Amino acid sequence: MTKFIFVTGGVSSSLGKGLTASSLGRLLKCRGLRLTMCKLDPYINVDPGTLNPFEHGEVFVTDDGGETDLDLGHYERFIDESLNRSSNATTGSIYSAVISKERRGDYLGRTVQVIPHVTDEIKERVYRLASDEIDVVITEVGGTVGDIEIVPFLEAIRQFRRDVGRENVCYVHLTLVPYLAPSGEQKTKPTQHSVTELRSRGIQPDVIVCRSDQAISQALKRKISLLCDVPPEAVVSAVDARSIYQIPLVLHDEGLDEHICRLLQFDLAKYPADLASWTELLRRVEATEEEGAPRVRIGIIGKYVNLPDAYLSVVEALRHAGFYHGASVEIVWVQAEEVLAMLASNSVHALHDLDGIVIPGGFGERGVEGKIAAARYARESGLPCLGLCLGLHVMVIDFARHVAGMDGAHSTEFDPATPYPVIDLMDDQVDVVNKGGTMRLGAYPAQLSPGSRVAKAYGQETISERHRHRYEVQPRFHNKLSEAGLVWSGMSPDGRLVEMLELGSHPFWVGTQAHPELKSRPDSPHPLFKELLAAALARAEGRAPRILDPRELE
Ligand code: GLN
């Protein structure tokens, strides 16, 4: 029978609940347990697809086209399992389901209420993930205990204990133990208040994970144990880790997975912890931090650079490639809107000092000309460049304008009157007015050209990547652009849609219509990021040509 772990958070947001849940997931997986994870989000948007990345960070897309919370990215990277749209539920999606049922008459004339109808729907979302193949479902409840929006979720998860039995449910509560410098003490009061609040909703936590910048002493653990009514071994000190990939080991050393296995009555002899592969990963992570490890500087030419969470998976994918190459990756945030001014100034500019760039996805016109200029600069100066989704669009626009003689070429997303709409909606999409749910979303296959750089990188010619976009390279321009030298190295199986492009003569100028960053895992980096980094390393080590003074460019 499937068992259920619920992770809630108290005191403050941004404590790393997602990372704690993911790390616990990894530890249980290292014990041979079969698990899946899900996130319950108390906001009212039906999914995060319509949320501004400034507000909520990146939208993580699953193979089945779910637009989900970025924590699902952590889950996938840590537990190394692909999740799907049912792995994330928001208040909006839950109410929307309840209201549809009410309209259909499913409630047979009864008054529809938060308890039991909304709470039943919440429970149903979690139960749906249980099966004969799953030993544990870890569910993270978004938000903070004490929020108004979280109440129905707490009520729903509280009912689990009664529904499935005490030995099949475990509640993990994450809190903050702040250090007050003037008194030189770590304080437990916020934890006590948070646990009191949780109890007022009927949930007695089984485990309290305390986030703090310094380890929590045994004495303090005993105090929390006494005041919050959990055994001392159930108080776990989760001290700030150097790298997020260290967190599983921090929690393991604190006995978290062992304690939870005991609570859930998993036989420890049958499920011993085998952390060898994770420890090996950490060894590689640490090697990149050693003095003398090769270094590369990779620029991310973005629009949301003030909120790096907007590009979370891109950053992680770059780091994973760094682990593979044993190289430390310094991320340089480049505001797309500043690129034109940077290039126009007569001095050697910031782009010149980079070893490679990523032009990530995005929506809306702001910064697009800067991204086109960055793509052009990379193309002309031999700077390794990987374009993701909108990144591929700007590479096509640059090539059309500056190589193929299509002056004014653009995407109709930004200039509907362009004389050369090289990027446009497909004919069967043009009537689309409504912005919700009109994107090409989720996994699509692509056929890579034999012998191409991308086929070599992947080591295969049929691939699948996740998408999230509306606009496509327009088929009527394919020939003209390829005659001018642009290589369409990946196409949809019917040959209609461009999936990948590259340039034969360039060290690495590759664009993809997809979001490969979503599939990179710390112990199996994505091939395109691996290759970008290989080219960037060659440049950093002086093995690749570099135009010394950008002013030499026309
Ligand atoms: N805005 C572009 C489109 O909708 C690109 C989207 C993206 O980069 N994810 O096609």
Molecular structure report:
The chain is 35% helix and 20% strand. The relative contact order is 0.11. With 554 residues, it is α/β, with parallel strands linked by helices. Helix 4 (91-104) packs across helix 5 and helix 11 packs across helix 12. It is built from 18 helices and 23 strands. The strands form five sheets. The chain has a nine-stranded mixed β-sheet with strand order 13-12-14-15-23-22-21-18-19, with helices on both faces. Glutamine (GLN) binds at residues 361-363, 389-390, 413, 468-471.
Concise structural overview:
The protein is of the alpha/beta class. It has 18 helices and 23 strands. Strands 13-12-14-15-23-22-21-18-19 form a nine-stranded mixed sheet, sandwiched between helices. A seven-stranded parallel sheet has the order 5-2-6-1-7-10-11, sandwiched between helices.
